[in-house]
Amino acid sequence: MTALPLGSTIGILGDGQLGRMLAGAAARLGFDVVILGPGDHSPASRVAAHAIQADYTDKDALAEFSVRSDLVTLEFENVPVSALNMLLDMGATVHPGPKSLEICQDRHFEKSFARETGVPTADYWVVDSVDDLRAAMRELQGGGILKTRRDGYDGHGQRRLKSGDDPITVYGDLDGVPCILEAMVPFAGEVSVVLARSATGEIKAYDPAENVHTNGILHTSRVPARFDEAVLKSAQSAATQLITALGHVGVLACEFFVLEDGGLLLNEMAPRVHNSGHWTPEACLTGQFEQHIRAIAGWPLGPTDRLFDAEMENLLGEDIYKPLAPGDMVTLYGKREARAGRKMGHVVRKT
Amino acid sequence: MTALPLGSTIGILGDGQLGRMLAGAAARLGFDVVILGPGDHSPASRVAAHAIQADYTDKDALAEFSVRSDLVTLEFENVPVSALNMLLDMGATVHPGPKSLEICQDRHFEKSFARETGVPTADYWVVDSVDDLRAAMRELQGGGILKTRRDGYDGHGQRRLKSGDDPITVYGDLDGVPCILEAMVPFAGEVSVVLARSATGEIKAYDPAENVHTNGILHTSRVPARFDEAVLKSAQSAATQLITALGHVGVLACEFFVLEDGGLLLNEMAPRVHNSGHWTPEACLTGQFEQHIRAIAGWPLGPTDRLFDAEMENLLGEDIYKPLAPGDMVTLYGKREARAGRKMGHVVRKT
Predict the structure, then answer these.
(1) Which homologous superfamily is B123-183 in?
(2) Which residues of A touch B286 (CB under 8 A)?
(3) Which of A11, A112, A135, A304 is deepest in the core (most CB within 10 A)?
(4) B204: which chain A residues are within 8 Å (Cβ-Cβ)?
(5) How far is B24 from chain A (nearest CA, A)?
(6) Nearest-angstrom CA–CA distance, B94 and B70
(7) Given B32, B321, B336, which is nearest A334 (Cβ)?
(8) Which tens digits make up the pLDDT trace of A216-243?
(9) Over the stretch A120-169, which tens digit does the pLDDT of each residue have?
């Protein structure tokens, strides 16, 4: 692996706010950016040297994207693996590669991968039918959450259930798609570790952040997390095991439930920069977006030292019209419609 | 003055690295950017929603630029004042306005403005002819520097002279254009104050940086500067007087000579973000590029607290091919040719 030469063009699959922030980081490192995504006037397309508006599986679009890009990456974990494979067939270099996507796109694959890697998860059952669900509910102690294996985000594709619920109704609520039934975990909190592994194998992790969700959407991330140092070290160490076992190149986010006894269970992974790392550009010498670009480019990773205690708060919908308090460091995503619940921006505060 | 609405488009006159970094900051605040400048594949055009490649006085181009922009600013102080006036005639809002350019584009206007404002400068004489120069050289004690009144940068348009020099030859070296003869000042160092004044009148200054030039080009800026606190406060106070008297909106940089006795003389002002403020995005809660956007948008200025001691080093020409040291925070400008002496990027280090 030689380092990506200065002035190269980085192709980003995905055109949302994460792509916009990645494009900004790439530009600061002197790279050009080309965006491929389906959105019209998308956040990322408006800060890039070139944008191709197309579906991820549009072969002509992928061919143009491949020709324009010296290196391809992604900001969205639900890019079809087939798109990555088409790009690889066209001779593109793609970081992260298909394995990271295949595993992180599917809750069953993700959890079984974690367990094989020695990182525990909540108990769960694979549910492909009402009969599977009925059998799983018999084994389940206490409450559970039925989750679609694929395409879940921000609480979508999930349904809580209790022992008396009717399996037919419950499974129908999720359209009978492949699911897992996950045992509810009595957790004390959630931390996420954002870390990067470079194309050269170098790994650097940020301090674990403590996340608070509201209505299934991340509301705030705080550093330092209020758990024991040993718990936080253990989360970083589990995340390091996972990124290494994945052979992932780029930034990966690992969300863990923290149990009352300090034990950790992997909740989920995102093979990309992550909302719970949005405090890093302000509070660290190198932010997650630049770190991702350095990692995929095979450059030395930047220092992740944290300069101050921080909290990050998401701005949803009309939150962006609230006046800024002195000291609020704000990032807005340039989305044209402030729909309720839509992630429009975020604020970082020194605490 | 109402604040610039979210999602507005900011037009930037100038397409170099300062425009590129301003565009990045504007994007982080959710704005779209349109660039007007003469360059082909220019650094700023490749990170903007739209770019118009044209000369600054191209009326059709200015008309398109004006229609596309909700607010116009600049990254280059030698944009012709006539271009700003055309934009104003077209109904554009322009920050900073023509007064800042008129004064900062001309060394005589700049120095006489500073003196009227109560900020001292080196002794100087206006030179419009060989006779003027001969007379000025008679009055000059010690060495002097003949400088063109306009269009000087990075040591260009300057010529040192001694008492025995022939005025005809010396003036001919600068093509007989309007000049000033400036007395050489025995200074202990140079500091610059980068500060912003918002459209609402709010002012915030960064810590003064100590600058070291090599061959007339800025080499390093360091904070804190190694002068007494009283000297630094006095530089900030003089800069505040100047930005207020100018009625400037946006970032202004004021360079001062520091004399052996701690006295300050204004060297020059730049009505824009400045190379000697390139340490601010890494070392401060709000960097100069975001501060400029906040100022012109009429948003509250961001906190300028410095988080650590820092040094900024310019990367000229092939400097960009040197390997990064651990801890080097690098910004590269995406210029396609690494010509000798050309500003290609910079590094910020925590010291």
Answers:
(1) ATP-grasp fold, A domain (3.30.1490.20)
(2) 329
(3) A11
(4) none
(5) 6
(6) 9
(7) B32
(8) 889 999 999 999 999 999 999 999 999 9
(9) 999 999 999 999 999 999 999 888 999 999 987 767 889 899 878 898 99
What tens digit of pLDDT does each residue of A162-206 get? 878 898 998 988 888 999 999 999 899 999 999 999 999 999 999
The pair of structure tokens assigned to A242 is: 């996972």
Model pLDDT, residue A203:
98
CATH class of B9-94: alpha beta
The dihedral through the CA atoms of B201, B206, B212, B215 has a sign that is negative
What percent of chain B has a predicted confidence (pLDDT) above 90?
Answer: 83
B194 token code pair: 């980068």
Domain spans of chain A, in order of start: 9-94, 123-183, 187-350
- CB-based contact (8 Å) between A157 and chain B? no
Find residues 16-75 of chain A whose CB sits inside 8 Å of chain B.
Answer: 20-21, 23-24, 27-33, 46-49
Number of neighbouring beta carbons within 10 Å of residue B331: 22
Strand partners, B257: B190, B265
CATH of A187-350 given 3.30.230.20, 3.40.50.300, 3.90.79.10, 3.30.470.20 = 3.30.470.20
CB contact under 8 A, B30 and A320: yes
Helical segments of chain B, H only? 17-28, 59-68, 81-89, 98-104, 107-116, 130-139, 167-173, 229-246, 280-283, 288-297
Q: What is the pLDDT of residues B123-162, one digit of tens each?
A: 999 999 999 999 999 999 888 999 999 987 767 889 899 8
CB contact under 8 A, A331 and B29: yes
Nearest to B191 by CA among B272, B276, B106: B276
